[in-house]
Amino acid sequence: AACRESAAFWDAYLTSCPLVETGDHTCSDGTVLTAAAIRARQLWAWQVALKNINLLEENRFSCFAAPDKPQWFGVWSNDGAETLAALSLTSAAPLARRALIEYADKAVTPDGVQSWYTHSDGVGCYGNPGDTGRFSHGVPCWVHAVDFYIRAADDAAILSETLDSGGTLWERIRVYLDRYMERRDVNGDGLVEWVNLWETGWDDKVGPFFSKSPISEWIRRIPTLEGEQIREFYEAFSCPVTPMVEQVYLLWALDGGAHMADLMGEAETAARYRATADRARRAVSETLWDETDGFYHDADVKAGTLSPTKNADVFYWLYYEPDPLRAGRIVARLLDPAAFGTRCLPMCSLDSEGFRPDGYWCGGHWPREMSYVSLGLARAGRRDLAEDVLLRAICSMPGNRMAEVLDPLTGRQSTAPNNLAYCVLNNVALLDLYGKTRWTDQKGQ
């Protein structure tokens, strides 16, 4: 009876999951992906997304979207929220609704401080003694996820839900966005800075952040330092960075925040968020572009210089790039075999000092991130490349695996997680590519 009940549950859920019937696809390297394989991989990603929801009320776990439950029980500020955005397109939308509300309640304080990581018991890393993330702010993906849910489920009523910690969901979103730049824009340039360990989520990203002290030293020291020791450590070793990835997260959140403000009848709030987004777009174009090499770069805040490293988050920026000439030069790097044109796209270019094919963000290929890359390529008018990148990511692993990181040169799995929930975001990007959903509300863009 239990087996029949389980089978009926999964049949009903998978039947509700939107799919794209693509036909067979010949990849840029000549590999042929059959329509049946592409369909099967989409279904497996939908299954993995739902089975990574934590809902163990007898253990007092919050309703969170874990990345891969055998590996981690808590939720990161990017992974979990966007898994929930995807689930809002399915019969699991009510569960996504509950999890979004609980995330806002547990991970974001009433005065708008968000933890980079929130443990399964609902305790955030921010301000948590002994936690390596005790100073680490999260990224605003949850704001965009709530907006995506509203549009997918036609449920603006979620904004009026009361949180256990006080106030409504909309009030929590508003105070968070109202104070976000105050907390994250440390130099007042209208852009978000990476100041503390784990912020951005690109843990070992090549660039200025770890130029004075390696990540291992940050991990060792941050949990143990107190008072004056903290100030001295930051004074000696901190190298704040303006990272491209954070600016894209910011714009997606502000787009969502403005749309939700419109729904709540707060025209002034919506206008303020759109103005903040406009300023950020201008600042990226004016300060992070290198005309010499035709690419955007992270900035070293203290030195006032651009990092020489080329990172794949620049392809995310194509979602907002207004200049077709710049977009063309960026795409050329994606196709260049000396930069990003490998078997599967690395997160750091081969010609950047510090590239490692067995690395994490310093060179590994993250299949889940190809959703962002493809969204950018499509907006830049390269739907052909967007589909190729996306289908290769969806079919990057055989059988019942959704890998975290692959070696970009060999395509072999290089980290342990086998069922990464966040890979379902590739399904959402494919739906966007085929006009079946929309990643952001595009009013004012």
Report on the structure:
A three-stranded antiparallel sheet has the order 7-10-11. The mean pLDDT is 94. The protein starts with a helix and ends in a 12-residue tail after the last helix. 52% of the residues are buried. The chain is mainly α.
Summarize, please.
The chain has 445 residues and is mainly alpha-helical. The chain has 15 helices and 11 strands.
So what's the overall shape? globular
Amino-to-carboxy terminus distance: 52 Å
Low-confidence stretches: none
**Spatial strand order of the main sheet:** 7-10-11
- The DSSP helix count reads 15
Instruction: Report Rg.
Output: 21 Å
Oligomer: single chain
Strand content: under 5%
Helix content: 40-55%
Largest sheet, in brief, is: 3 strands, antiparallel
Mean pLDDT: 94
Structural class by secondary-structure content: mainly alpha
Number of strands: 11
SSE run? HEEHEEEHHEHHHHEHHEEEEHHHHH
Indicate the topology.
Blueprint: H1 2-16, E1 25-26, E2 32-33, H2 35-51, E3 53-54, E4 64-65, E5 75-76, H3 79-87, H4 93-107, E6 117-118, H5 141-153, H6 169-184, H7 215-221, H8 228-237, E7 241-242, H9 244-263, H10 267-287, E8 289-290, E9 295-296, E10 299-300, E11 305-306, H11 313-317, H12 324-335, H13 370-379, H14 383-394, H15 425-433
Antiparallel strand pairs: 1-2, 3-4, 5-6, 7-10, 8-9, 10-11
Helix pairs in contact: 3-4, 3-5, 4-5, 5-9, 6-9, 9-10, 13-14, 13-15, 14-15
